[in-house]
Amino acid sequence: MRVLLVEDDEPIAESLRRGLSRYGFEVQWVRTGTEGLEAQPADFALVLVDLGLPDMDGLDVCRELRARGDVPIIVISARSDEVDRVVGLEIGADDYVTKPFGVREVVARMRAVLRRVQPARSEPAQEYGRLRIDRRGRRVHLDGAEVELTPKEFDLLVFLAEEPGAVFTREQIMEAVWDENWFGPTKTLDVHVGVLRRKLGDAASLETVRGVGFRLVLP
Ligand code: CA
C-alpha cells in the first residue's frame, strides 16, 4: 500500500519511512508542499502531511489535496494547538497526530482511517493465486468455492495478505487484528493460524518465522 509523506524534517521522515515499511506500507517521501501537490493523490492510499513545511502551510496542502479528491489525509504536526487540529479536520483531514509520536500510533490512525473510508470506495475483490479475497463483502473464495471463515480468521488473512511474503511480528498482528492496545500471550494467534492453514490448504501457506511472527506465502 503506497503512502505519500510530506515532511521536511529528515529524521522524522526517515523513521516514519522505515517504521511504516515494516507494517507493509511503501512510503514516498517529499520535503515540500509544492512537491506534495505535484504528486498524484490517486496513486496513494493515504497522505501524511506535516503542518510546518518550508514553502507553504501544511493546512493549505491539505485544503488543495481535498479539493482535488477524496484521498485520506492525516495531519502530522509539532503544534499541539487545538485550533490547528480543528482547522485541519474542518478542511477535510481525516485525522491528526501530534509530534512526538510513535510509529505504532501513526499506523493505528492510518488503519482506522483506511477502514473508515474503504466501504465508500469501490474496491474490487483481489486475486491471490487460487484465492480471491473480497474485503468489502468479507468473503474468501478458493478455486471458486467460498471458504467459511470466522471474523478474526478473515481479518488475520486480510492483514497478512496486505503484503504477501512480508513478515509481520506477533505484536503487529495482535495489535491490528485483535486490539490496538493488546499485550500479553499470543496463543490465540497460533490457534487462528492453525485453523487458517487447514482451511486454505495448499493455496497459500502461513509460514512461521521463528521468534518473529508469520508471513503469507503464495505458491
Ligand atoms: Ca516540519
Automatic annotation (TrEMBL):
Residues 2-114 form the Response regulatory domain. Gene3D superfamilies: 3.40.50.2300, 6.10.250.690, Winged helix-like DNA-binding domain superfamily/Winged helix DNA-binding domain. InterPro entries: CheY-like_superfamily, OmpR/PhoB-type_DNA-bd, Sig_transdc_resp-reg_C-effctor, Sig_transdc_resp-reg_receiver, WalR-like, WH-like_DNA-bd_sf. Residues 123-218 bind DNA. Keywords: DNA-binding, Phosphoprotein, Two-component regulatory system. Signal peptide: none annotated. The modification 4-aspartylphosphate is found at D50. Pfam families: Response_reg, Trans_reg_C. The keyword rRNA-binding does not apply. Residues 123-218 form the OmpR/PhoB-type domain. This is Response regulator transcription factor.
